[in-house]
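F.,

This is the one I mentioned.
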């Protein structure tokens, strides 16, 4: 398995620092004991962290982020984008498109070599291209399970084509869409996104509805069964925004929302699916934000690295 980081957060619109998330997960990974009760020693098959392009992508991110902050400030003041602001927005879109093509080609090349691919990101916009490469390889016979606090189905946000708030809409409108999109943990959305869910037959397990079922005494296993029943394919790709978890587990994430999954609910869902003959063929993990660039060995990085290890182990185990 190959994991490659994309430290990118140019179009984030609230909190900052998630471009340092991949580095934090790597630093914190040294604290993980490798014994895994469900999958055994699958790590012995190899989990490789590929940083070949990471530094160049981080440098570009750091060049463009100040432009994006100026645009956000202008929009929040209620003023229109004119002149220099439109030029900056165009530059961000053009440079961002180049990045997305590089991510797509990187993922496509790894898949062509027969590798399993996991991606660690900054913002949740970057995995779009890796999802495209996976869906293309498997001819669309894939179900995406999207765990997030947000639906990420907006047509665009702040004028950015590849916004973190639009990734799943872009995925579903792409040339190689998955057969099914299932969303879990969602608790922040707009009417435009709900309308899109209905149009594209997206199965959304709203966090409110899941909690109500549990408040009435329904077990997590019963809810996992409901999710399983919505999956029409053998192959599953997990797209995991860390803010899909309870914010106490990711206090620094850019757009936290009360509610969410507990860590064990997320990992037990993975285990449940592979024990019911589903195969995890890839994943991305996004929006992990360390305390600061100088404090990478922190709580959020610790949680993120452990979630990353579970995603890796379940993926390797289901591809024996």
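My design for it:
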């Amino acid at each position: 398995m190959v994991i490659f980081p994309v430290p990118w957060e140019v179009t984030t619109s609230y909190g900052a620092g998630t471009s340092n998330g991949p580095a934090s997960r790597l630093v914190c990974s040294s604290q993980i004991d490798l014994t895994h009760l469900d999958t055994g020693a699958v790590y012995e098959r190899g989990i490789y962290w590929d940083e070949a392009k990471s530094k160049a992508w981080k440098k570009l991110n750091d060049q463009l982020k100040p432009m994006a902050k100026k645009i956000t400030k202008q929009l929040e003041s209620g003023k229109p984008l004119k002149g220099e602001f439109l030029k900056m927005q165009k530059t961000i879109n053009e440079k961002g498109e180049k990045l997305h093509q590089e991510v797509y080609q990187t993922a496509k090349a790894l898949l062509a070599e027969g590798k399993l691919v996991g991606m660690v990101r900054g913002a949740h916009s970057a995995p779009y291209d890796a999802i495209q490469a996976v869906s293309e390889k498997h001819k669309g016979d894939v179900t995406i399970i999207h765990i997030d606090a947000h639906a990420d189905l907006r047509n665009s946000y702040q004028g950015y084509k590849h916004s973190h708030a639009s990734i799943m809409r872009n995925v579903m409108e792409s040339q190689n869409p998955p057969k099914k999109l299932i969303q879990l943990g969602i608790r922040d959305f707009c009417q435009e996104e709900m309308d899109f869910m209905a149009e594209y037959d997206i199965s959304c397990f709203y966090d409110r509805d899941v909690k109500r079922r549990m408040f009435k005494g329904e077990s997590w296993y019963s809810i996992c069964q409901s999710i399983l029943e919505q999956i029409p394919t053998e192959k599953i790709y997990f797209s995991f925004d860390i803010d899909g978890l309870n914010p106490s587990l990711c206090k620094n994430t850019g757009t936290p929302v009360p509610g969410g999954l507990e860590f064990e609910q997320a990992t037990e869902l993975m285990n449940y699916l592979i024990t019911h003959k589903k195969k995890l063929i890839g994943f991305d993990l996004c929006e992990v934000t360390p305390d600061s660039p100088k404090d990478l060995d922190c709580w959020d990085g610790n949680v993120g690295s452990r979630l990353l290890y579970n995603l890796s182990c379940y993926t390797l185990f289901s591809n024996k």
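Strands lie at 2-6, 48-49, 117-121, 143-147, 180-184, 203-205, 235-241, 279-286.

Talk soon.
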